[in-house]
Amino acid sequence: MSFIDTGFPGLLVYEPLVFDDSRGFFYEAYNEKIFGGAGITTRFVQDNQSRSTYGVIRGLHYQMPPFAQSKLVRTLVGAILDVVVDIRKGSPTYGKAFSIELSADNKKQLFIPAGFAHGFSVLSDAAEVLYKCDQFYSKVSEGGILYNDPALAIDWKIPPAQAIVSDKDLQNPVFASCINPFVFEG
Q1: Which of 51, 94, 145, 161 could form an SS bridge with 60, CB 3.0 to 4.6 Å?
Q2: Domain locations in the chain?
Q3: pLDDT tens, 32-91?
Q4: CATH architecture entry for 44-177
Q5: Active site includes 27?
Q6: For residues 99 and 80, what is the distance between their CA atoms, to the nearest angstrom?
Q7: Contact by Cβ (8 Å): 92, 185
Q8: pTM of the predicted protein model
């Protein structure tokens, strides 16, 4: 089992040790001791799961303090492009995006600390995504950034004509105008 540094402070990719045999596979998706050994002492309080079809883009979302959320994201079915934007003022990666393909096949997971906007696009016919959160959802604490903000130049790997985006997400402000209380505490 290994954690891979992404170059973004606190943002880690987890590649679990998978045991394959003729019956299928087994792996530990989360183990508090193993994650703690990597410095992740987050106590998760809520699991969220979504199912989406090809072309769906969800995000970019975040929760503002005191309900800011750290997340551990994985794909149970299909494949997604998971995308985060560092919105922590003073961070060396402030305003930069990171993306990674998470799939049922590669079993990679992304640990996202509070202070990142998060979204994903569905690359397969359908995808089911599960993410653990360390804070409960609060509607009044919702924040968002427009998924196709030209300043962020995110390649969602979906042709624009095939993108399926909610009306709510289309109303998100661009990064330069988003409400952002996060400060990097490196």
Answers
A1: 145
A2: 44-177
A3: 999 999 999 999 999 999 999 999 999 999 999 999 999 999 999 999 999 999 999 999
A4: Sandwich (2.60)
A5: no
A6: 10
A7: no
A8: 0.95
